[in-house]
Amino acid sequence: MLFVNSLTExxxxxxxxxxxxxxxxxxxxxxxxxxLSNKGYxxxxxxxxVGGCRQSVSRWLKMWDDIxxxxxxxxxxxxxxxxxxAIQEKEAIEKIKENPRSIKSVLSQIADNTGxxxxxxxxxxICKKSGLKWKRIKKTLKHNxxxxxxxxxxxxxxxxxxxxxxxxINVYYFDESCFKLNPCVPGAKQKTGENIEVPxxxxxxxxxxxxxxxxxxxxxxxxxxxxxxDIVVACFDEFSKIIDKPTYVLIDNAPxxxxxxxxxxxxxxxxxxxxxxxxxxxxxxxxxxEILWRKIKYEWMPFSAxxxxxxxxxxxxxxxxxxxxxxxxxxx
Length: 332
Hints:
five-stranded mixed β-sheet; 14 helices; single chain; elongated; Nucleotidyltransferase, domain 5; alpha/beta
């Protein structure tokens, strides 16, 4: 029978450390096999415990006896020679950055510049190795905003959140969103040649106004039809009745939030402990309730909700009612 030579105490300690902490699974498996063989386990028994085959386990035991621990280390394998060298790969990445939307044109440029033709998969692997991946381009309004005003707003929010952490105040974010039978279309895993289809039609809207904080405490109001300043003011009036400590509400600069009638209510709300603070213009990322609307539309709303207006109403109300319990966002 094939067994390794008796191990010294130092070898056993080294192999135990390798078995438990080596980053490569195959190396941990080899170290375990040597330890088992030292305890008297036969090759078939070792195979059943660690997996693999008889030939592999036998080879590991022999390599240990021949050259020791070096025989257990996974050696570098050269594999197929790379089509592009390091400099050419760097140039390929620069071409991708210049023209990130068209892989075909980049492949053509690489072939013209290097004389080497590579396939799409090779270029994708090069991109992945460099930290590039294919994803949706993001629209932005950053070029329109005033940077000084933005930084002041960031500092103001940070100060409010610090006071909230100390238990002095509550901080909420307010916004409106519209839900109707013309759905947002999310991505989803689908079989090749098959499509998941979502019903779509024109319909009236469920306009939802919501207040949310970073602990996912949520209050909402739903209306059919358009939203005007009177409705927004009524929602703030209702919200002011349920606060239990000084509360700050961060809002964007929508017309209904900057109208004369809305601004005229601010002093009355402040007497009730409700303080409204505007977020700097063109800074939607500062209003975390935007994340909630995306979650509802792209992840939480079932496809069956779009079969009828009554189904949409039922599912929407169910989600709104269970935000903070069944539906939770872990705000940073």
